[in-house]
């Protein structure tokens, strides 16, 4: 037999998504009849609100089954512009908006639009698992800045400044954060962005969880800071998390015109438009505001209750400490006191107690767990009980 032809450097260098892998393992155990408590979900446990589904069905039946303009149907791009103005007072043109097949793809196209081989991209850790891979697929190099729980999982201007080199091209920010749930204040972001401005960096601001926020905290849209900041900021947001639409694959980018144009051209050769009828569902999420708001409020009330319960329970476990994060649907407890690698901790937890959690090392931060509370109160209660028992055996 001849030696197999080598795969590309892109194929050889990609790491598969560890969060999807843990979730798949938990689901497989469940399918095999095991009673699994999974904290691994990266999506709301709610279904898409009915009015959104209905608008999509109506569009499908009405023949919205053909190609649409690459960056999205015009009414949706207008509705996205309108919601930025309503929520943040931000004025933009529909031409600055691109609708892509999932916020993940919006992020990737944003990276591709501004990064070339040799460039460096600063990624605060813990980070969302896909950022480093996207940067590598653009031929650029990720530069991590570890921001652990002693700094509230937040990048500071000084740490950013220290990581910048003449090759630095882009800074990726994600508030509220996946995996920590942490929300930066406007003041904190302004100080960080000032450093990015000084060094002439682009900013990719992943604001996917902007509406999933608690304790009266307010989301910050970085592009509103000044025209100068807007001119270098690529804002990614979407429908997946806020409206329980993860399977629809629709995300949004708001970018300065030249970048928006570049992203549209990239998308035109890579995926073309998001499923046309699906865009009509997304449109209803933005235009039928009262119905949407009611559905989101129901979900947020449940998330907030679970967040507080889970947080209190975690801090009640000897050896575990957890910050109370104000956004998304994750908590990121510190389990380093047990003296186990977090990967080993997670594997043993799943094997012995059938509790699924994602190790912090998957997000570039060893010694933590990512626990998603986008699951029922009952599973959280049962899962915490098992986790408590597991931790007690480790301390013996
Ligand atoms: C879920 C998520 C996204 C993208 O979600 P899509 O399902 O691709 O729309 C982007 N960024 C972060 C931080 C996320 O958690």
Explain the overall architecture.
The protein is an alpha/beta fold. It has two domains: 9-48 and 292-394, Aspartate Aminotransferase, domain 1 (Alpha-Beta Complex), CATH 3.90.1150.10; 63-288, Aspartate Aminotransferase, domain 2 (3-Layer(aba) Sandwich). It contains 14 helices and twelve strands. It has helices at 9-13, 18-31, 50-61, 74-88, 103-114, 130-137, 157-163, 186-198, 227-230, 257-270, 276-287, 289-315, 342-353, 377-395; strands spanning 37-38, 97-100, 120-125, 141-146, 168-173, 202-206, 233-238, 251-254, 330-331, 355-356, 358-359, 369-372. The strands form three sheets. A seven-stranded mixed sheet has the order 2-8-7-6-5-3-4, with helices on both faces. Strands 9-12-11 form a three-stranded antiparallel sheet. A two-stranded parallel sheet has the order 1-10. Helix 8 (186-198) links the parallel strand 5 (168-173) and strand 6. The longest helix is centred in the C-terminal third of the chain and has 27 residues, at 289-315. The model has no long low-confidence stretch (mean pLDDT 96). It binds pyridoxal-5'-phosphate.
